[in-house]
Design goal:
3 helices, globular, alpha/beta, 136 residues, six-stranded mixed beta sheet
């Protein structure tokens, strides 16, 4: 289970809406399954269908996550018009051995309301885990 304080949940949603019409992305830092910080990033692809985290994102993560003694616990990105489920492209990206996490948070901005879901991706296996939004 991913534990996400409500202020971070709101920050992630706001960043995803700010990224429109493109997919938005970022990183969650914390300990274990509890998120403590969100690092918003620019989508280096500048695309509504794909995303990539540029070098400035990793530099910000080093400062904000590593600098606070936290671990990278999730990659976050939005889907602008589809459900909050990892696409085949997402599954391929999750296989990157340079990513130090297998947790992916996907935010759907498809009307009528946004939704946020968390997944563990191991190879082709995609397993949903609950998100517990807690007071911040």
């Amino acid at each position: 289970m991913l534990v996400l304080p409500r202020p971070l949940w709101l920050e992630v949603l706001g960043h995803c809406y700010d990224g429109l019409p493109d997919e938005a992305c970022g990183l969650l830092g914390g300990h274990g399954t509890r998120a403590a910080v969100f690092v918003p990033c620019s989508n280096a692809d500048r695309s509504s269908r794909t995303f990539s985290l540029g070098p400035e994102c990793w530099e910000a993560a080093d400062r904000r996550i590593g600098g606070a003694g936290l671990d990278l616990i999730a990659v976050v990105h939005s889907h602008t018009h589809t459900e909050a489920y990892p696409s085949p492209t997402d599954v391929d990206q999750a296989a990157n051995p340079l990513l130090p996490t297998d947790r992916w948070v996907v935010v759907s901005l498809r009307p009528p309301a946004p939704s946020m879901r968390s997944y563990r991706i191991d190879g082709d296996a995609v397993t949903e885990e609950p998100i517990d939004v807690v007071p911040g």
